[in-house]
Amino acid sequence: MRRERVGLVLGLVLDLAIGSVIASSAVVALAAVCVQHRFDHDSAAIADLLRRDGAPRVALPFAMRTAVRVYRDRGIEPLLYDPTTIAVQAFARHDVDHVVLPKEGFEALASFASATARVGSTTLVTVDTDAVRSAPLAAGQSISWEYSRPYRYAPISDSLLLGKSHWVEYAFELATGRYQFDIEAFSDTAEPLEFSILEGRGARRGLQYIPRLSYGPISMRFSIARSEDPVLSVTIALQHAWGEDARGDIRLHRAELARIE
Questions:
Q1: Which pLDDT score is estimated for 7?
Q2: What is the pairing mode between strands 177-186 and 218-224?
């Protein structure tokens, strides 16, 4: 009889332990779902608002990446940004005039806002793109193009093709300082990438080989010297160096210009 009671108690304890594990797992799973969808309600309202206004794009802080699906399902193309490093000029370069603010920080954008709307607990800012277009990068700031990095995360868009007849140009307004232009690219053969830096006084050109089956990054540094103009228009062009003689394509996954001094 005593053994039976002990067995019953042990069985009860085991059942309680299993039940606790199941309950804990359910709580964790529910919390994960809540985290995954915590921005959905506000994002759906903002997307509907943008669609009514005919705005095709919106900028989202990386912390709200889980809301990308909500915007894309409603025909709005999201641009992800890091509020700690992005230069406000980036919004003009990406043709984005609506920016969702992070929960805190990013005070630099306040002086360029032409309108502000509160949607639930989220703040949406309309940016004066003409003003931000000519705002030079400060030291530590950057402008990036995230085409597709499938080895880092599920891509939002396809990588950019640089082949026999494909090239890309990036336009900037830059002040005196030192800059670094980074790319992440892929090629199944070792292909040469030619980059040109065009500004008021001429052009500088360089050549970089994309290593076979490598993603980079590859860095190029340059300086903007002091001149009569406080801000210069600068274009960086990338193209396959061999043109029509190219053996294969180069796929560009990411490009970024940063001011380092």
A1: 57
A2: antiparallel
**Angstrom distance (rounded) from CA 178 to CA 224:** 6
Bridge partners for 127 per DSSP: 113
Q: Strands, DSSP E only, in the chain? A: 57-61, 77-81, 98-100, 113-119, 122-127, 142-146, 160-162, 167-175, 177-186, 191-199, 202-210, 218-224, 231-240, 250-259
Short-list 52, 62, 205, 247, CA closest to 144: 62
Determine what percent of the chain falls in helix, strand and coil, rounding each to the nearest 5: 30, 40, 30
Beta-carbon contacts of 116 under 8 Å, excluding residues fewer than 6 positions away, are 123, 124, 125, 126
Q: Tens digits of per-residue pLDDT, 90-149?
A: 999 999 999 999 887 788 888 899 999 999 989 999 999 899 999 999 999 999 998 876
Q: Region 19-35: what's the mean pLDDT?
A: 46
Structure-block tokens of residue 182: 């980074």
Residue whose structure tokens are 């076979």: 212
Count of beta carbons in the 10 Å neighbourhood of residue 16: 10
